[in-house]
Specification:
The chain has helices spanning 4-38, 44-88, 97-104, 111-120, 125-140, 152-163, 166-179, 181-184, 190-194, 197-210, 217-242. By secondary structure, it is mainly alpha-helical. It is elongated, with a radius of gyration of 27 Å.
Length: 253
């Protein structure tokens, strides 16, 4: 699966959405200030009507921004979930017949043979589930001290395969709920979410890497790199706070 590309596209849609929210808020505040500066030169009824007109315009601009953003997010989520479902769907054509023949022959596979089979099928959830079923059935007929005991990463792989992509769906939804919160609920505090957009994107990508069925050396290297960078950023931020240099400067891309 290539799910990171959807996160990146949605991130740009959210970034655009925040520009729209910013414009709407600035337009509203500018108009309200002008209205306030005019004061009661006009009668109270006209003042209230003008005030309501400004608020209605603001609400419409926000609604338009939300609609544009939500349309793009829905489009990307459909593509994202299509890949997830196609990857996790049980597919008989992807069953390893050689492995199935070993099972039918009732040969007691060793732990090494089982783990090798898992690694060889790292991109094949159907076979991972078949292997898991074999392990469960073998262990059901063995005393505790003779049961197949696999390292945690293989047990995690079984769990991921059995979850049919629920983790990946949750990652996407969590990213949206955090990163786009102030588009859905716009207020003067929208910059708090906007300035953390890169961090939310990084969180999602990191979780996607960790959701990989079997984490190979290359994937683990990326995970380690991202986590090391985050530690470095946090240390630098704390260092600046200690020296009174951090003023919450905002940077947007």
């Amino acid at each position: 699966m290539e799910l990171e590309k959807y996160i990146k596209v949605v991130r740009e849609a959210i970034n655009t959405g925040y520009y729209d929210v910013q414009d709407a808020l600035m337009n509203r505040d500018t108009k309200l200030k002008k209205l306030k500066d005019r004061g009661w030169k006009s009668d109270e009824t006209a003042y209230k009507e003008e005030y309501q007109k400004i608020i209605d315009t603001f609400n419409q601009e926000i609604a338009d921004a939300q609609a544009k953003y939500e349309e793009k997010v829905q489009e990307e989520k459909e593509g994202y979930m299509k890949e997830v479902k196609e990857f996790y769907v049980s597919d008989g054509s992807r069953i390893d017949l050689n492995f199935m023949n070993l099972i039918k022959a009732e040969l007691p596979l060793t732990v090494e043979e089982i783990t090798d089979a898992v690694i060889q099928n790292a991109d094949n959830p159907t076979m991972i589930r078949v292997i898991h079923k074999y392990v469960l059935e073998r262990n059901a007929h063995l005393p505790e001290h003779k049961r197949i005991k696999l390292d945690n990463k293989y047990q995690v792989a079984f769990y991921k395969a059995d979850s049919h992509g629920k983790k990946e769906e949750k990652i996407f939804d969590t990213f949206i709920s955090l990163a786009a919160y102030a588009i859905k609920y716009p207020s003067e505090n929208y910059t708090i979410y906007w300035q953390n957009l890169d961090e939310y994107e990084e969180d999602a990508i990191l979780e996607l890497l960790k959701a990989t069925l079997i984490i190979d050396d290359q994937t683990q290297e990326r995970i380690n790199e991202i986590e090391a960078q985050r530690i470095e950023k946090n240390n630098e931020k704390n260092k600046n706070l200690d020296h009174g240099l951090w003023h919450g400067a905002l940077t947007f891309s």
